[in-house]
Design goal:
The chain is an alpha+beta fold. The chain has helices at 2-25, 90-94; strands spanning 28-35, 39-45, 51-64, 70-80, 97-106, 112-120, 123-125, 129-130, 136-145, 160-169.
Length: 174
């Protein structure tokens, strides 16, 4: 009986150690710069190897509100520029697994909001979200992962990369 327990314990210990190493070595990069431009390109590791250029972007706009008037809004996301536009590569359409968390803060009114979305393929992002008129601080945190997860905004601790960019959006006349 103890002859079976010892190898089983060794396998469990090795699996826990490997999981700890995977968590410790999971790549995570974060920019500490606030961009006032609508887009910013970043070279990031691709889950299958190599690097891809990812364009982080924020689009200010006006959106029709429930009151029948137009209000300032922002849409944000990240797009893989190395993924050919219009290609019908099935694996590129279904892979990698992406998630993005878009957080915004209206500096002038102190309104805040956040949305997490998931997708597959080259792009992940949100549609226009009404933020109220004012200067908007937007944070886009996007992840690409080799494996899917069931928790939005999370990635497996290996075969994935996460990066965050920050933007300032000027007030819009609507």
């Amino acid at each position: 009986m103890s002859a079976i327990r010892r190898p089983a314990a060794m396998v469990c210990a090795a699996a826990m150690l490997a999981g700890g190493v995977a968590v410790a070595t999971a790549p995570a990069a974060s920019a500490q710069v606030w961009h006032d431009t609508p887009a910013w390109d970043v070279r990031l590791p691709y889950p299958l190897g190599g690097e891809h250029t990812i364009r982080y972007s924020v689009f200010p706009s006006c959106k029709l509100g429930e009151d029948g008037r137009f209000h300032q809004a922002v849409a944000a996301g990240a797009r893989d520029l190395d993924h050919p536009v219009g290609s019908f590569d099935f694996s590129a359409t279904m892979f990698p697994f992406n998630s993005a968390t878009i957080s915004w803060h209206n500096i002038d009114t102190d309104q805040r909001g956040s949305q997490t979305v998931q997708s597959t393929g080259p792009e992940v992002g949100t549609q226009g979200t009404i933020t109220g008129r004012g200067h908007i601080a937007v944070t886009v945190s996007a992840s690409k992962s080799l494996f899917p997860t069931f928790a939005p905004g999370s990635v497996v601790p290996f075969g994935s990369t996460t990066h965050t960019e920050h933007f300032i959006v000027a007030p819009q006349e609507c």
